[in-house]
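Exercise 7. Predict the structure of Bacillithiol system redox-active protein YtxJ from Chryseobacterium turcicum.
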Amino acid sequence: MSFLDKIFGGKEEQKESKSFWKTIKSEEDLNKAIKESYENRIAIFKHSTSCFISKTVLKNFEKEIENSDDENVSFYFLDLLAFRPISNKIAEDFGIRHESPQLIVFENGKAINNASHQDISLSQIL
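Solution. The predicted structure, encoded as tokens:
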């Protein structure tokens, strides 16, 4: 692995999926997530796998989640490069401008908060 691959992530890099993430890969997955928001709060993390800033924010956010004891939130992960149409649908359906990285919090089927870049933190959810 080259130096630049270590910094920016090479093709060999595989995302280690943390156990708390549920992935969104289809409109059906998105609809299930929104439906779940009627039972408890959910958060969707929109991540660009080719962006160093997004990777850094994701790692910091994952550390916050791992150090939290709140189990009343479900965390969803959306890979923007692989599933951009779903990100566009979220922006259109909920009136939230697309950003990356971005965290959107849902409750009772509605987006109640969102943050991007360094403003992303667990405090946005709780």
